[in-house]
Amino acid sequence: MENNKYALITGASSGIGYELAKLFAADKYNLVLVSRNQQELDNRAAELRQHGVEVITIAKDLFNRQEAFDLYDEVKRRGLHIDVLVNDAGQGLYGEFKDTDINRELSIIDLNIASLVILTKQFLQDMVARNEGKILQLASVASKLPGPWQSVYHGTKAFVLSFTEAIREELKDTNITITALMPGATDTGFFDKAGMQNSKILEDKSSLSNPADVAKDGYEALQDGKDKVISGLKNKVQIAMTNLTPDSTVAHLMNEQQKPSDK
Predict the structure, then answer these.
(1) 157 is catalytic
(2) Which of 37, 54, 110, 261 fits a disulfide with 114 by CB distance 3.0 to 4.6 angstroms?
(3) How many helices (H) and strands (E) does the chain have?
(4) Residue 124 forms part of a structural domain
(5) Nearest in space to 84 (alpha carbons), one of 22, 176, 173
Protein backbone atom coordinates (compact mmCIF):
# COMPACT_ATOMS: atom_id res chain seq x y z
CA MET A 1 0.00 0.00 0.00
CA GLU A 2 1.33 3.42 -0.93
CA ASN A 3 2.14 5.87 1.84
CA ASN A 4 2.27 9.54 0.88
CA LYS A 5 4.04 10.55 4.07
CA TYR A 6 7.55 11.96 4.19
CA ALA A 7 10.26 11.20 6.74
CA LEU A 8 13.25 13.53 6.99
CA ILE A 9 16.38 11.89 8.41
CA THR A 10 19.63 13.67 9.25
CA GLY A 11 22.82 11.66 9.37
CA ALA A 12 21.12 9.41 6.84
CA SER A 13 24.08 8.21 4.78
CA SER A 14 25.46 5.72 7.31
CA GLY A 15 25.02 3.97 10.65
CA ILE A 16 21.76 4.16 12.56
CA GLY A 17 20.38 6.89 10.30
CA TYR A 18 20.75 4.75 7.19
CA GLU A 19 19.25 1.72 8.92
CA LEU A 20 16.27 3.86 9.94
CA ALA A 21 15.92 5.07 6.35
CA LYS A 22 15.65 1.44 5.20
CA LEU A 23 12.86 0.78 7.69
CA PHE A 24 10.90 3.86 6.63
CA ALA A 25 11.35 2.96 2.94
CA ALA A 26 10.15 -0.60 3.57
CA ASP A 27 6.98 0.89 5.06
CA LYS A 28 6.60 3.08 1.96
CA TYR A 29 7.51 6.41 3.50
CA ASN A 30 8.98 8.86 1.03
CA LEU A 31 12.35 10.07 2.27
CA VAL A 32 14.30 13.29 2.60
CA LEU A 33 17.88 12.22 3.33
CA VAL A 34 20.32 14.73 4.79
CA SER A 35 24.06 14.53 5.38
CA ARG A 36 27.18 16.44 4.40
CA ASN A 37 28.30 14.21 1.51
CA GLN A 38 26.20 14.46 -1.66
CA GLN A 39 27.82 11.43 -3.30
CA GLU A 40 27.07 9.20 -0.30
CA LEU A 41 23.50 10.48 -0.26
CA ASP A 42 23.08 9.73 -3.96
CA ASN A 43 24.36 6.18 -3.46
CA ARG A 44 21.93 5.57 -0.60
CA ALA A 45 19.06 7.11 -2.52
CA ALA A 46 19.60 4.74 -5.42
CA GLU A 47 19.37 1.77 -3.04
CA LEU A 48 16.31 3.06 -1.22
CA ARG A 49 14.34 3.91 -4.36
CA GLN A 50 14.18 0.17 -5.01
CA HIS A 51 11.41 0.15 -2.39
CA GLY A 52 9.29 2.19 -4.80
CA VAL A 53 9.43 5.40 -2.77
CA GLU A 54 10.48 8.94 -3.59
CA VAL A 55 13.91 9.80 -2.18
CA ILE A 56 15.08 13.40 -2.04
CA THR A 57 18.66 14.18 -1.04
CA ILE A 58 19.82 17.46 0.50
CA ALA A 59 23.48 17.96 1.41
CA LYS A 60 23.86 20.21 4.47
CA ASP A 61 26.63 20.62 7.01
CA LEU A 62 24.75 20.75 10.31
CA PHE A 63 27.92 21.62 12.20
CA ASN A 64 26.92 25.06 10.91
CA ARG A 65 23.64 25.99 12.61
CA GLN A 66 22.70 28.33 9.74
CA GLU A 67 22.53 25.29 7.46
CA ALA A 68 19.84 23.85 9.72
CA PHE A 69 17.72 26.93 9.03
CA ASP A 70 18.61 26.61 5.33
CA LEU A 71 17.54 22.94 5.33
CA TYR A 72 14.09 23.83 6.64
CA ASP A 73 13.76 26.65 4.10
CA GLU A 74 14.68 24.30 1.25
CA VAL A 75 12.12 21.73 2.36
CA LYS A 76 9.45 24.45 2.44
CA ARG A 77 10.47 25.74 -1.01
CA ARG A 78 9.97 22.24 -2.36
CA GLY A 79 6.46 22.18 -0.90
CA LEU A 80 7.13 19.11 1.25
CA HIS A 81 5.19 18.30 4.41
CA ILE A 82 7.40 16.37 6.82
CA ASP A 83 5.38 13.84 8.79
CA VAL A 84 8.32 12.33 10.66
CA LEU A 85 11.51 14.11 11.67
CA VAL A 86 14.51 12.01 12.68
CA ASN A 87 17.37 13.96 14.25
CA ASP A 88 20.11 11.36 13.95
CA ALA A 89 23.17 13.45 13.05
CA GLY A 90 25.68 13.67 15.88
CA GLN A 91 29.38 13.31 16.65
CA GLY A 92 31.77 13.12 19.57
CA LEU A 93 35.40 13.92 20.35
CA TYR A 94 37.71 11.68 22.34
CA GLY A 95 40.21 12.88 24.90
CA GLU A 96 40.55 14.56 28.27
CA PHE A 97 38.78 17.91 28.26
CA LYS A 98 41.93 19.82 29.27
CA ASP A 99 43.61 18.64 26.06
CA THR A 100 40.85 18.65 23.44
CA ASP A 101 40.20 21.27 20.75
CA ILE A 102 37.63 23.79 22.00
CA ASN A 103 36.63 24.85 18.49
CA ARG A 104 35.94 21.24 17.55
CA GLU A 105 33.88 20.86 20.72
CA LEU A 106 31.88 24.00 19.99
CA SER A 107 31.11 22.66 16.50
CA ILE A 108 29.94 19.38 18.06
CA ILE A 109 27.65 21.35 20.38
CA ASP A 110 26.26 23.14 17.32
CA LEU A 111 25.63 19.81 15.58
CA ASN A 112 24.34 17.77 18.52
CA ILE A 113 22.32 20.55 20.17
CA ALA A 114 21.87 23.75 18.15
CA SER A 115 20.94 22.20 14.81
CA LEU A 116 18.76 19.60 16.53
CA VAL A 117 16.90 22.36 18.39
CA ILE A 118 16.49 24.41 15.22
CA LEU A 119 15.08 21.53 13.19
CA THR A 120 12.83 20.39 16.02
CA LYS A 121 11.44 23.92 16.44
CA GLN A 122 10.83 24.52 12.75
CA PHE A 123 9.24 21.20 11.86
CA LEU A 124 7.33 20.93 15.14
CA GLN A 125 5.57 24.22 14.45
CA ASP A 126 4.32 22.78 11.15
CA MET A 127 3.21 19.60 12.89
CA VAL A 128 1.32 21.61 15.52
CA ALA A 129 -0.50 23.49 12.75
CA ARG A 130 -1.68 20.11 11.37
CA ASN A 131 -1.96 18.49 14.84
CA GLU A 132 -0.10 15.47 13.52
CA GLY A 133 3.49 14.27 13.38
CA LYS A 134 6.27 12.26 14.95
CA ILE A 135 9.83 13.14 15.97
CA LEU A 136 12.66 10.73 16.82
CA GLN A 137 15.66 12.19 18.63
CA LEU A 138 18.94 10.30 18.85
CA ALA A 139 19.87 10.51 22.47
CA SER A 140 22.12 7.81 23.95
CA VAL A 141 22.73 5.90 27.13
CA ALA A 142 25.44 8.57 27.40
CA SER A 143 22.61 10.93 28.36
CA LYS A 144 22.42 9.13 31.71
CA LEU A 145 26.15 8.66 32.28
CA PRO A 146 28.90 11.18 33.03
CA GLY A 147 31.51 10.44 30.38
CA PRO A 148 35.19 10.97 31.08
CA TRP A 149 37.14 11.07 27.79
CA GLN A 150 33.90 12.15 26.04
CA SER A 151 32.67 14.84 28.42
CA VAL A 152 31.16 17.17 25.83
CA TYR A 153 29.45 14.39 23.88
CA HIS A 154 27.84 12.94 27.00
CA GLY A 155 26.76 16.44 28.01
CA THR A 156 25.11 17.07 24.66
CA LYS A 157 23.18 13.82 24.86
CA ALA A 158 21.97 14.66 28.38
CA PHE A 159 20.60 17.86 26.84
CA VAL A 160 18.85 15.94 24.05
CA LEU A 161 17.10 13.59 26.47
CA SER A 162 15.99 16.34 28.88
CA PHE A 163 14.86 18.56 25.99
CA THR A 164 12.88 15.71 24.43
CA GLU A 165 11.14 14.74 27.67
CA ALA A 166 10.14 18.37 28.32
CA ILE A 167 8.65 18.88 24.87
CA ARG A 168 6.82 15.56 25.08
CA GLU A 169 5.01 16.82 28.18
CA GLU A 170 4.10 20.06 26.39
CA LEU A 171 2.62 18.02 23.53
CA LYS A 172 0.67 15.51 25.63
CA ASP A 173 -2.73 16.87 24.54
CA THR A 174 -1.88 16.79 20.82
CA ASN A 175 -1.56 14.10 18.18
CA ILE A 176 2.20 14.68 18.01
CA THR A 177 4.69 12.38 19.69
CA ILE A 178 8.40 12.81 20.34
CA THR A 179 10.60 9.84 21.19
CA ALA A 180 14.19 9.53 22.41
CA LEU A 181 16.26 6.60 21.15
CA MET A 182 19.03 5.66 23.60
CA PRO A 183 21.57 3.24 22.14
CA GLY A 184 24.82 2.23 23.75
CA ALA A 185 28.12 1.72 21.93
CA THR A 186 27.14 0.78 18.37
CA ASP A 187 29.16 -0.51 15.43
CA THR A 188 29.13 2.63 13.29
CA GLY A 189 31.67 5.19 12.08
CA PHE A 190 31.19 7.17 15.31
CA PHE A 191 34.41 5.94 16.92
CA ASP A 192 36.59 6.73 13.91
CA LYS A 193 35.16 10.24 13.62
CA ALA A 194 35.66 10.83 17.36
CA GLY A 195 39.26 9.56 17.27
CA MET A 196 38.46 6.73 19.69
CA GLN A 197 40.35 3.86 18.05
CA ASN A 198 42.56 3.47 21.15
CA SER A 199 39.70 3.45 23.66
CA LYS A 200 39.25 0.43 25.93
CA ILE A 201 35.60 0.31 24.90
CA LEU A 202 36.74 -0.95 21.48
CA GLU A 203 38.94 -3.77 22.77
CA ASP A 204 36.06 -6.21 22.27
CA LYS A 205 34.20 -5.06 19.18
CA SER A 206 31.82 -8.01 19.48
CA SER A 207 30.21 -6.13 22.37
CA LEU A 208 29.10 -3.30 20.07
CA SER A 209 25.42 -3.15 19.12
CA ASN A 210 24.31 -3.76 15.54
CA PRO A 211 23.01 -0.48 14.06
CA ALA A 212 20.15 -2.35 12.37
CA ASP A 213 18.97 -3.65 15.75
CA VAL A 214 19.20 -0.18 17.27
CA ALA A 215 17.26 1.31 14.37
CA LYS A 216 14.54 -1.33 14.71
CA ASP A 217 14.13 -0.54 18.42
CA GLY A 218 13.90 3.18 17.68
CA TYR A 219 11.53 2.74 14.75
CA GLU A 220 9.12 0.60 16.72
CA ALA A 221 9.18 2.98 19.70
CA LEU A 222 8.53 5.93 17.38
CA GLN A 223 5.59 4.23 15.69
CA ASP A 224 4.17 3.22 19.08
CA GLY A 225 4.46 6.81 20.33
CA LYS A 226 6.72 5.87 23.25
CA ASP A 227 8.61 8.51 25.21
CA LYS A 228 11.99 6.76 25.00
CA VAL A 229 13.63 3.42 24.41
CA ILE A 230 16.95 2.07 25.66
CA SER A 231 18.21 -0.23 22.92
CA GLY A 232 19.65 -3.57 24.05
CA LEU A 233 19.31 -5.60 27.24
CA LYS A 234 22.89 -4.89 28.33
CA ASN A 235 22.25 -1.15 28.11
CA LYS A 236 18.95 -1.43 29.97
CA VAL A 237 20.73 -3.24 32.81
CA GLN A 238 23.53 -0.66 32.84
CA ILE A 239 21.11 2.25 33.16
CA ALA A 240 19.08 0.45 35.84
CA MET A 241 22.26 -0.08 37.87
CA THR A 242 23.35 3.51 37.26
CA ASN A 243 20.12 4.77 38.80
CA LEU A 244 21.15 3.08 42.05
CA THR A 245 24.80 4.18 41.99
CA PRO A 246 26.35 7.51 43.07
CA ASP A 247 27.27 9.72 40.12
CA SER A 248 30.92 9.87 41.21
CA THR A 249 31.11 6.08 41.11
CA VAL A 250 29.43 5.97 37.70
CA ALA A 251 31.92 8.53 36.39
CA HIS A 252 34.80 6.39 37.64
CA LEU A 253 33.38 3.26 36.03
CA MET A 254 32.91 5.12 32.73
CA ASN A 255 36.50 6.36 32.97
CA GLU A 256 37.67 2.76 33.26
CA GLN A 257 35.59 1.77 30.23
CA GLN A 258 36.58 4.64 27.99
CA LYS A 259 40.19 5.48 28.84
CA PRO A 260 42.91 4.55 26.36
CA SER A 261 43.96 0.91 26.33
CA ASP A 262 47.51 1.80 27.35
CA LYS A 263 46.47 3.67 30.53
Answers:
(1) yes
(2) 110
(3) 10, 7
(4) yes
(5) 176
Q: Which of 63, 93, 88 lies closest to 194 in space, CA to CA?
A: 93
6, 18, 94, 153: the active-site residue:
153
Whether 17 is covered by a domain: the verdict is: yes
Respond yes or no: is residue 94 known to be catalytic: no
Residue 185 — left, alpha, or beta (φ > 0 → left; ψ -120 to 50 → alpha)? Answer: beta
| Residue 140 domain-assigned (yes or no) | yes
CATH code of the domain covering residue 102 = 3.40.50.720
Domain range for 132: 6-258
Candidates 60, 134, 144, 157; catalytic one:
157
CA separation (Å) from 31 to 12, 14, 18, 85? Answer: 10, 15, 11, 10
| Structure confidence at residue 59 (pLDDT) | 98
168 CB contacts (<8 Å, ≥6 apart)? 177, 178, 227
177 belongs to a structural domain: yes
Q: Are 255 and 201 in contact (CB under 8 A)?
A: no
Angle at which helices 15-26 and 211-223 cross, to 10°: 50
Could you read off the pLDDT of 134-184 as tens digits, one per residue?
Answer: 999 999 999 999 999 999 999 999 999 999 999 999 999 999 999 999 998
